[in-house]
Description:
The chain has 369 residues and is of the alpha/beta class. It contains nine helices and seven strands; from the N terminus they run ααβαβαββαβαββααα. Helix 2 crosses helix 3.
Amino acid sequence: MTNDLSESYDANYYATYGERPLEPDDPAYVGFFDTVAKRVGIDIRPSTVLDVGCAFGMLVAALNRHEIDAKGFDFSEYAIERAVKAHPELDGRVWRGSALEPIEGRYDLITCIEVIEHLDEADGRTAIENMTAATDTILLSSAPTDFVEPTHLNVRPTEYWSDLMAAQGFFRSHEIDVSFVSPWACLYVRAEPDLRSTVLAYERSLSRAVQERNELRTEVQRLSIGASVAEERLTTIRELEANFAIEREEHAGTAAGKSTEHEAEIAKLQATIVELQTNLMIAKDAAIGARAETAAAEANLHLHLTDLHAMQTYYNDVEPRVEELRKHAAAGIEAGQQVEQIHNSTTWKLMWAVLTPYRKLKTRILGHG
């Protein structure tokens, strides 16, 4: 480099980078580069990518996560060390190098995002020559403002870089929008356009830009009218607020007395509310107790029904036996009545008298035996 500022890109530089320190694991930066990688894969569809000035390798890592073979280099040794530490898989995929040196190999796409403005004018031309020699497609983003940054040595508008690219046979693509990188990002493609196709491409792009500008102007006019109406309403509201403040001051004394009455009424209502809440809690407790008693009664009823069912079953089993016993009892009564009639008959009495001496003789005989 004509002005070697490589040592300027140390830990302090990245810690004070822009409005937000650049950290390889910062969710905001990780999310941004992941979005860029997705859009590159969808819109440009390269198989191989080289990121010139890769810093902490966040875009390289994101592209590889999306299955794009990506590599990168940066002339800050500190940046490359942080890149490999944050993304061990990048070891061998990122290295310390300079855009002022010829690039080995060829790539489907070379990206150079917010890097080339850090080179002076001569080195910027050299970097473009080296990049255009190693690819047919370049995604270039270089801030056209921010002159305050001390490491910005060659801040230029977009047409400046387009002119340098055209000198190398690269022309801006009007078919692929790369504003997902930055509003000033451009995609340059190697081509040999004739005058007619070039005019057509620029006219197409200009037509879209004019249409967008007109629609935005219409929207700005609509919003301006709405803002005017809102301002009028705001003025009216402020006047009403001022009048209300005056009336409030005039009625402050009367309002104070009414306020005391209202406070007393509010206190009564609050006491009533507390009482109602207490009664409600008591009623809830009573309901819970009633439900418990009902459940116990239902349980007892179930037990009684069970016992009744058992008794009914027992009765069904015993009833035939009782009926049979009744029949036997009836037969026994009838037999007893017949015996009684025999005992009371004359024949029985005569036989008893005749046989009495013989019974006594038998008793004496058996007693001696």
